[in-house]
Amino acid sequence: MTKKIISYSQNVLDKTLNGSIPLKEKDDLTKKLFMLFEYYNKDITVKDIVKKHKISRAGFYVIKKLYEENGSVGLIKKKTGPKHNYVRTESIKNLVIRLKYLDPNLSGAVIAQKLNQQGHKISIKSVERIISELKLVKKTSITNQKI
User: Fold this and answer.
1) pTM score of the predicted model
2) Are 110 and 96 within 8 A, CB to CB?
């Protein structure tokens, strides 16, 4: 599939190139679009673009490829890191619930130890997080509390 590059009339380009637009220091999207604007209008060479914007040549071509494949949406920074939870999976949560149900007095450390003995690698902090997220705390009756 061939991408069609839309070109504007020279009148619009003249007005744009002669004018100015305020850029915020952390506005990566606008900076990337400006680099591509310079490139596609052949105002400046790739070598000069990467030098001017302090990025690598490969980095520029990554930006160019993202733009050509996805448009300006492809240039927006995406959240880094894992996309889902690898440690606190549903099966681990179910095991924590089961252990907490069988013995409500078990601490997060004891549950983590039991799960590690069963071959599930999980930290105490992760177990405690599961307990707090699912609100698996032992309810005390009013008669047991001191008034």
Assistant:
1) 0.47
2) no
Kindly give the residue spans of alpha helices, DSSP state H, lying in 5-144: 10-18, 28-40, 46-53, 57-70, 90-102, 108-117, 124-133
In our burial notation (b when 16+ CB lie closer than 10 A, e otherwise), range 40-58 reads: eeeeeeeeebbeeeebeee
Q: Please give the structure tokens belonging to residue 91.
A: 């099966």
Cβ-contact 46, 60 below 8 angstroms: yes
Distance CA 85, CA 90 (A): 9
For residue 45, give both structure tokens.
């060479």
pLDDT tens sequence across 77-103:
888 877 777 888 899 999 999 999 999
Distance CA 96, CA 101 (A): 8
Tell me which amino acid residue 35 is. M
Give the span between the Cα atoms of 83 and 79, in whole angstroms: 9
Cα–Cα distance between 131 and 116 in angstroms, integer? 17
